[in-house]
Amino acid sequence: MVSSVRPSATALAQMIGGWQGRPGPAYRGLAAAIRQSVLDGRLAIGARLPAERELSRALGVSRTTVAGAYSALRDDGWLASRRGSGSVVTAGSGSFYDSGLVPVRRPADPEADIIDLTTAGRAAPDDLLDAAIDRAVDRMRGLYRTDGYFPLGVPELREAIAARYVAAGVETSADQILVTNGAQHGFSLALGDLTHALDRVIVESPTYPMALDLIRHTGRVPSPVGLLPDNDQPWMHDLLRSAFRQSAASTAFLMPDFQNPTGALMDAETRALVMQLSEESGTVVMVDESFRLMALEERTLPPPMSYFDARNSGVSIGSLSKPVWGGLRIGWVRAGSAVVGRLGVARALGDMSGPLLDQLIAVEMMPDLDAAARRQAARMRENFDVLRAALAQQAPSWEVIRPAGGATVWVRLPQAVATDAARLAPRHGVLIVPGTRFGPDGTMDNYLRIPLTPQTERLRAAIPRIVTAVQAAEATDVPARVAGWLT
Amino acid sequence: MVSSVRPSATALAQMIGGWQGRPGPAYRGLAAAIRQSVLDGRLAIGARLPAERELSRALGVSRTTVAGAYSALRDDGWLASRRGSGSVVTAGSGSFYDSGLVPVRRPADPEADIIDLTTAGRAAPDDLLDAAIDRAVDRMRGLYRTDGYFPLGVPELREAIAARYVAAGVETSADQILVTNGAQHGFSLALGDLTHALDRVIVESPTYPMALDLIRHTGRVPSPVGLLPDNDQPWMHDLLRSAFRQSAASTAFLMPDFQNPTGALMDAETRALVMQLSEESGTVVMVDESFRLMALEERTLPPPMSYFDARNSGVSIGSLSKPVWGGLRIGWVRAGSAVVGRLGVARALGDMSGPLLDQLIAVEMMPDLDAAARRQAARMRENFDVLRAALAQQAPSWEVIRPAGGATVWVRLPQAVATDAARLAPRHGVLIVPGTRFGPDGTMDNYLRIPLTPQTERLRAAIPRIVTAVQAAEATDVPARVAGWLT
User: Chain centroid to CA A354: how far?
Assistant: First the structure.
C-alpha cells in the first residue's frame, strides 16, 4: 500500500530527532531511528520518504549516510523502492497485523485475581446518578401514554446538549443534535453516512482501536497520520497538510480533546489548520470529543473543533460515558441539520430510538456534568501521580507520557515487546492492551496504554504485574506475534 | 426487474379466485382480476405468469380469453413480454414507488387535534413497569463499580430469554442469545452479517415498512412473496417454493407470529416447509417474533420457527416493545452461538453495549411478561371489536381482515385510493399509512393498516375521520402519487 503521506525532509528530521547519539556507524543509527519511527507509529506504513539529497541537507549529514541508511532499511524489509513513488515504508519482516477483532470480553472469572486494564471505562458516580434516576423515573411516568419512540432524541436533551455548545461559543440549535447510544454509535452512524466502502479515512496513529476496527469492518481504509510521542504539540502540521491534500480521503477521524490513547490536547492553531484543510480538500472532519471535560489539570481549553467550522461541514461526537458512566448509553452527534436528519433516518433504521430512561437521566445529569467530570478528573490526576511514581521506581527506563487529559496514559517501553507482554500478562494477574492495537499498521509494539480509571489501589496493585509481564517478554525469544493476544 | 417468482397456473387461479362474477367480457374480467392481484400485492412486480395454455386449462376457460386478458394487461402497462421470460408483471402506468424514507415524525402539534395512527406503538403498562424499575435500580447499584458494558447483554437477561425458548420446546443456551436495542436492531445486525449489498432478501408482501426501508437503505433487494388477503392460510406453499428455489436469495425475512401488517399466524406445516426450503436452498431464514405473545384470542400457538430449525441455521428476533413498551429498548436475537458471536462484534462496533437499566428492568419484567401480554391482547381484542363494528356501519364496503394476533388490522378498500387518502387525512384530523408503504413494489394502494394500540376512545374518534379521508380521496381525480404522503 502506498499511502499519500509524504513527510518533507524537515518533518522527517523532526520525527527522528536525537538519532545521532546512537553508537556505531552513522548510517546504521539513522536506519534504526527511521525504523523506530515506523515501529512506534509516527511514520506510517506506505509513507514516501524524501529523496536522499533532501534528507541529507535537512539532517546535515552526507548523502552517503542517507543512502546507506535507506539501503539497510531496504535490506531488512522496511523500505521498498517503487517506480514513480521513491522509497516507501513497508511493514518490516516482523510486523504484526492485528486481527481487528473487538475484545468482546468473557465475564470475568471471580475466582481468578486478574486486574483488567483493557478498557478505560469508569465506575459510576453513585450519588449523582442515584438522584438523577429518581427524578428521571418521575419524568418518564409523564411519557407512559406515548409509544416511547424519539428517534432523534428526547427534545429536552437535544436542547440541553445544544446549549452546551452555545456556552462554548458555538452557535448550535437543537435540530443540529442527534442523541445516540454513546460515542461509538455516533461515529458508526457518521461513518456510514459520510463514507463508502474503500474510502480512505484519515486517522491519528495511535488512535482508538474500536474506531479502527469499525473502519476496517465496514470496508473503509484507515490512512494514518503519525503523532509525535510528546504531548506538547504532537500533531505535525506538515503531515496533516500532506494527509488532507494528497490522500483523497473522504473523511478524517480525530480526537482533539483529548486524544485516545495519548491524552494530548490539540491547540487552537492546529484546529484552525485542520478545518482549513478540510475546506480546501473536501475531506469531512469527524471529531470525538468524549473526553473534553476530562482535563487532568483545570485549564482553559481551546474552543471545540466546531468553533472553527463556520460552514458546519463537520461532525462532532460527544458522550456521557467518560464524565458519567458507560452503563448509561448516552452520546450525541452535532452536525449541520441536514446531516443530522440523514443520520436520524439511519439511526431509526438501525435501532428505532434510544433508551428513554437513560435519556431522561441524562437530562437530569446535565446541570451536574461539569462537577461530575471535575471529580473524575481529580481521580485521574491522583492515579497518574501514583502510576508515574511507581513506574519511576519499578521501571525507570519506561517513558510515561503525561496526558493533558482523558483517561489513559501512553507508556513507551525500551523494547518492542508489548504484544508479547500482553500475551504473558494474564499469567501475572493483569490484562493489558499492547500499542499495536492502536496503530493501523500493527506497529507501536513498544507502547502500552494504561487506563487511569481503576480504583487507585487496584491500579497500584496492577503496576508490578505489568512490569513483570514486560520483563518476562523481554526475556523470551519466542514472539507472540499471533492473533488473539487476549487469550 | 424480473423476479424469480413464477406462480404455477394453479397458484394464479387460486390467487384470482372469484373473478368470473365480474360484468363485461370474460377476458376483461380476467385482466381486472390479475391487475387487482398486482395492486394488492399478492402478485409481485417481476413475477412471471404461466403460459396461456396452462392458465386456460387451470381456469377452465378458452385460451382466447387468457390471450385477450394478457394482451389487455400488456396494453395498459401491467405486463411485459421478455425474451426467455414469458409474460412478466410490471408496475402499471400509475404505480407509486415510495421514497423509502422512514417517517421520522415531527413532534406533534399540541394545538392540532390530529390522531396519529401511523405507528402501532403502545402505551406503557404503568404498574408493572413501576415495580420493575424500583427493583432494577437496586440491581444496577450493584453494578456501579463496573464499567457498565455488556456488549452481548446482561447475563441474567440472556439466561431468562433462553429459558423462554426452552419452555417453548426449543433447546437454547444463553450463548445463543444476543440482547439488542429492540427488534429492528436485531434485524439490522442480522441483515448486516448474513447478506451483502445487492443480495436478494425474500419478504412477505405486505410486510413491515421499516424492514423494507432497511433492506433498501443497505443496498439489498427485496424479493416479495405475496400473501393471500385472508388470514386462514395466507402463505401459499407454491409461491414459497418458487421463491426459495428460484430467487437465489441469501436470506428471507418472515413474520410467522404474527405477521405485520396482516396479523396472520403461520401454521406448523408451513413453518416446517419454510425450514425445509431453507435447508435445500441455503437461504437463511430470519423471523421476527415480536408479536408472538399477542394472540387476539387465547390459543395454543404452533412452536416457534426455531423449533423446526434443527441445524440452528436461522435467526429469530424478539422484542419487549409490543408486550411491554417501546420506551424500553429491549429486543434479542436467537441464533447459533457462532452467529451470535459475530453479531456481538458488529453490535459492539455499532454502539458498544445496550442500556443497562433497561436490561435490568427487562430481567424484572420477564416473570410478568405473559401477564402483561395477555392484558395488552385483551385491549387489542376490544379495539378490534370497536373498529369492526364502526366500519361495518360507516363503511360497509370495506373488508376488515380479522387478525389472529399482533397490533394492527389490514383493511381492504373498494378502490385503490389509500395514498390519496393518507395525503388528505391530516385535513380530517388523522394520520394514516397507506398500503403502498407495506409493499416492496408500491402496490396495495387499496389497503390501509390501522393500529389497535390507541386508547379505545381515540380509536373510536379516529374512525369517522379515516372514512371521510377515504371518501374524499375517492371523490377526487387528482392522484397523490408523489413522494411525501406524510406532509
Answer: 25
* Of A73, A89, A105, the domain-final residue: A89
Q: Does the pLDDT value for residue A98 go beyond 70?
A: no
Residue with cell 384470542: B297
Q: Which residues contact B345 (CB under 8 A, 6 or more apart)?
A: A101, A102, A104, A217
CB-CB contact of B206 with B183 (8 Å) = no
| Nearest chain A CA: its distance from B120 CA (Å) | 8
Instruction: Indicate whether B402 belongs to any domain.
Output: no
Residue B487 in domain: no
Please indicate, yes or no, if residue B317 is contained in any of the structural domains: yes
| B308 and B451 assigned to the same domain | no
Q: How confident is the model at residue B479 (pLDDT cuts 50, 70, 90)?
A: very low
Closest residue in B to A125 (Cα–Cα): B144
**Range scoring the smallest mean pLDDT among A13-27, B216-230, B366-380:** A13-27
Is residue A191's pLDDT more than 90?
Answer: yes
Q: Running DSSP on this structure, what letter comes out for residue B195?
A: -
CA–CA separation, A102 and A363 (whole Å): 31
Say which CATH number the domain at A468 has.
Answer: 3.90.1150.10
A chain contacts of residue B182, beta-carbon cutoff 8 Å = 351-353
Is the same domain home to B150 and B233? yes
Can you tell me the distance from the alpha carbon of B113 to that of A282, in angstroms, rounded to the nearest whole number? 46
ipTM of the modeled complex: 0.80
CA distance A317 to chain B (A): 13
Put simply, whether A147 touches B (Cβ < 8 Å) is yes
Judging contacts by C-beta atoms under 8 Å, the chain B residues touching residue A328 are 148, 355-357
* Interval B299-316 mean pLDDT: 96
Tell me: the pLDDT tens digits for B227-247? 998 878 899 999 999 999 999
Are A348 and B130 an interchain contact pair (Cβ–Cβ within 8 Å)? no
One domain for residues A300 and A198: yes
B175 in the same domain as B270: yes
> Which residue segment(s) compose the domain that B190 sits in?
126-370
Does B137 contact A at CB distance below 8 Å? yes
| Nearest neighbour of A148 by CB, restricted to B124, B130, B354 | B124
Based on the domain organization, do A264 and A347 belong to the same domain?
Answer: yes
- Per-residue pLDDT tens over the stretch A286-305: 999 999 999 999 889 999 99
CB < 8 Å to A104, chain B: 151-152, 341, 344-345, 348
Cβ under 8 Å to A: B residues 79-108: 101-102, 104, 107
A148–B328: do the CB atoms touch at under 8 Å? yes
Indicate the number of domains in chain B: 3
Domain annotation covers residue A400 = no
Q: What is the CATH number of the domain that holds B271?
A: 3.40.640.10
Greatest CA separation for chain B: 80
- How far is B342 from B422, CA to CA, in rounded Å? 41
